[in-house]
Amino acid sequence: MNNIYVYCEVENGVVADVSLELLTKGRKLANQLKCKLEALVIGSNLASIESQIFPYGVDRINVADDERLFPYTTHPHTAITVKLFQEEKPQIALMGATSIGRDLGPRVSSALHSGLTADCTSLEIGSHEDKKEGKVYENLLYQIRPAFGGNIVATIINPDCRPQMATVREGVMKKEIQSATFKGELRNLEVKKYVHDADFMIKVIERHMEASKVNIKNSSIIVAGGYGVGSRENFDKLHELAEVLGAEVGASRAAVDAGYADHNRQIGQTGVTVRPKLYIACGISGQIQHTAGMQESAMVISINTDANAPINKIADYVITGDISEIIPRMIKYYKKNSK
Amino acid sequence: MNGLRIIVLAKQVPDTRNVGKDAMKADGTVNRAALAAIYNPEDLNALEQALRLKDKYPGTTITILTMGPGRAAEIIRESIYRGADRGFLLTDRAFAGSDTLATSYALASAIKTIGEFDLVVCGRQAIDGDTAQVGPQVAEKLNIPQITYAEDVISVVKNKIKVKRRLERGVELVEGPLPLVITVNGTAPECRPRNAKRVMKYKHASSVSERQNSSEDYIALYNERPYLNIPELNLKDTKAVEAEVGLSGSPTKVKKIENVVFQAKESKVLSANDEDIESMMVELISNHTLG
Ligand SMILES: Cc1cc2nc3c(=O)[nH]c(=O)nc-3n(C[C@H](O)[C@H](O)[C@H](O)COP(=O)(O)OP(=O)(O)OC[C@H]3O[C@@H](n4cnc5c(N)ncnc54)[C@H](O)[C@@H]3O)c2cc1C
Ligand SMILES: Cc1cc2nc3c(=O)[nH]c(=O)nc-3n(C[C@H](O)[C@H](O)[C@H](O)COP(=O)(O)OP(=O)(O)OC[C@H]3O[C@@H](n4cnc5c(N)ncnc54)[C@H](O)[C@@H]3O)c2cc1C
Questions:
Q1: Rounded distance, CA A294 to CA A272, Å?
Q2: CB contacts < 8 Å between A and B, how many?
Q3: I want to staple B249 with a disulfide (CB 3.0 to 4.6 A). Which of A12, A272, B76, B102 is the partner?
Q4: Whose alpha carbon is nearest atom 4 of ligand 1?
Q5: Which ligand has an atom closest to residue B139 CA?
Q6: Which of B146, B169, B289 sits opposite A212 (nearest CB)?
Q7: What residues have CB less than 8 Å from A137, skipping those under 6 apart?
Q8: Does residue B124 surpass a pLDDT of 90?
Q9: Which fold has domain B5-249?
């Protein structure tokens, strides 16, 4: 009772990164609140899925396994989640801010009349004093999220309704195994108790999913290009540098919109959030929507013809000049001085 | 196929690309008056999907529903210029401070008041609150299915709607029974422009509150041409429970708002010459930033 639940997404037998990231966060919150961490997995062919989940320190995994539960459709997943939450009364429920989580979360929160905070970038435990009511709330979930196009950051709380629900985008939280040998309890839900045939009113007729091939999120070095790179050909130079450094190539939205790079490389508010060891920003001005996705990089190099580009304010190294001259020099001197 | 009865949910939003310092009030709610108000971009994509269904299935009617302050009537005029049939402005002080759940409850109550419908079409997400929660929550409150991330409404045949969805990592073709709610993605086709004839015909359309200070000539005009009236709905009209809307009906509370500021840090400023670049690379290699 009153535990923390993480709704885990599964595609092709693999638990989504965002779910594992949330389990990692959920474990920390559970330790702080001295409650248990539970996972909810809904899908089909889920035998041995627990081996991917227990290592994150999950005390109990609730599995609803039925061939009709994959691919995801709204109603059956909502029905299971709502009923389980009514029975178990979690204090916190977390979901990925993904195509699934953002379809399911609001539906569940509406059915339970519990608040839902979208796209959190940070989750913390804290207290709240309602001066009007003269009431103090302890151990609330602070749900911290950007809004207004990233221009403000709001801390949202749900003082009275439970569960306190939040969605978080992929890559925002860190994924960390607690213990490879950790084992908790495995509970198989009796699916027909939770879902009715009528819940399957939406039929998925066709489905084409691509595994995201580019993996900028997990790369420790990122060479990111912006509109200032100027062309797809010039972007090749970034790829060359990335190859030499063992890095991945990322891009600003302006570069993606201009066709210099593919959308799956976009970093920022409407792309992925990254926190590499080193971020090399090439021809990126540093608008808030971009920096929202990279400002936690441990080190930033900015290469820009404009000495006053906003990104320079968050850079550790500011190189003022043209990328077409600087990148070849970086390649040259890396090769010369490494090993 | 007979015509469809479509309700489009459209929101007037502050242009968040230009939020000034003084646009936030102390209680954490937004001083919208300080920002330019625009038609939420994805709601225009939603309107276009509705208009395409109207082109395809004669007899279809499109009703716009917007919740907001008096000036949100602009959304209805704009929609009518582009081909919508009519619109309702849902407006009441009691709605102020609503979170997505309270907003959805108010919108769903208004939809029930407007009457029977086959389809509710919304945008995926509004650019101010940025939550994308209202569409699914309205569907839940109406107790009907939802299809989110719609990119193309392909057909409606015998009360079954076929929709192409654009997901993060792919596409899906789904089919569901009417009535339902769809939320339309920004990747769907852009909205058609205003129709000049409709602009001429409806440019004096206004709501009661907008007309409050009009001259008598105008009042006469509205009596003569009732289609120029933009009807308003308030809390009472919708029979919504007051405790379920506004701040009291909102489980989420804004505890704190911070403006995003850049933190200046000490940076090394280099030039593009060989010496500077080489010394930087040497430094990065020696401190193991580069492998
Ligand atoms: C800083 C800040 C943070 C917030 N965070 C949260 C939060 O995390 N959770 C939460 O529950 N609330 C939150 N709110 C409140 C929320 O912004 C409002 O409830 C808002 O009215 C609706 O949410 P949205 O703008 O995100 O709409 P979305 O859910 O993004 O809108 C989706 C679609 O619903 C339709 N729609 C939405 N509103 C209307 C309307 N008024 N009239 C007609 N159609 C409409 C449109 O078709 C729109 O495209 C926050 C508010 C602020 C100021
Ligand atoms: C709701 C919303 C969401 C958004 N989401 C994102 C997002 O997720 N990610 C994102 O990146 N953006 C996002 N944006 C867009 C963002 O506001 C900026 O428009 C974008 O980040 C700008 O990209 P840029 O820096 O590459 O281009 P610009 O701002 O055009 O900057 C180009 C830079 O290149 C420099 N330059 C030019 N030539 C050279 C040269 N030869 N060598 C070196 N430097 C050179 C210029 O001095 C300039 O600083 C979003 C915007 C909105 C409204």
A1: 9
A2: 237
A3: B102
A4: B129
A5: 1
A6: B169
A7: A127, A128, A129, A130, A157, A159
A8: yes
A9: Rossmann fold (3.40.50)
